[in-house]
Design a protein that fits this description.
Oligomer: single chain
Strand content: under 5%
Distance between the termini: 74 Å
Radius of gyration: 36 Å
Structural class: mainly alpha
Largest sheet: none
Shape: rod-shaped
Helix content: over 70%
Number of strands: 0
Number of helices: 9
Order of helices and strands: HHHHHHHHH
């Protein structure tokens, strides 16, 4: 194997460089794979000159690698990914926690009104029935609850 490498590696590398348009890394991979196949199949080079067989294997490997690259989508650099907007849920989660904490600081009647009207999406009339209070009270509590919630959020550095 050492003799085979010493005799054929340099010409094989030059040939592989031409097959890979000068890409040294791919060419070295082709040479390595070619010599590995020669080692695995010594009968292929025992009966005839080795160089034509090695060059044919290298060519086939280069063609196979080229076809494999064409079959998959083209690779893009990381710089192309940086321009894509990536949804970041972390900020939204942190804001949700801050709103939940601020909501917890409200008086219970204000919190219930906001939960019914904003979080559960009920109308003033529906919230009035669920809470058992007049519609006008739902409206006034909603007004004062929103004002208190705004102040609590401003204290946390979250302003609408």
């Amino acid at each position: 194997m050492r003799a085979l490498y010493a005799e054929h590696a340099a010409p094989l590398l030059r040939y592989a460089l031409r097959l890979t348009d000068g890409d040294r890394q791919r060419a070295e991979d082709i040479v390595q794979e070619t010599l590995l196949r020669a080692w695995l199949h010594p009968e292929a080079i025992a009966a005839r000159p080795a160089r034509p067989w090695l060059f044919a294997v290298a060519r086939n490997l280069a063609v196979d690698a080229h076809r494999a690259r064409k079959a998959r989508p083209p690779e893009v650099a990381d710089s192309a990914l940086e321009i894509l907007p990536v949804p970041d849920e972390a900020d939204r989660v942190l804001e949700s926690w801050a709103v939940a904490e601020a909501l917890g600081e409200l008086r219970p009647e204000h919190r219930r009104v906001l939960v019914e009207t904003y979080y559960l999406g009920r109308s003033v009339a529906e919230a009035s029935v669920v809470l058992g209070i007049p519609a006008g009270t739902v409206k006034s509590r909603t007004f004062y609850a929103l004002r208190a919630l705004k102040l609590a959020l401003e204290e946390r550095g979250l302003t609408p």
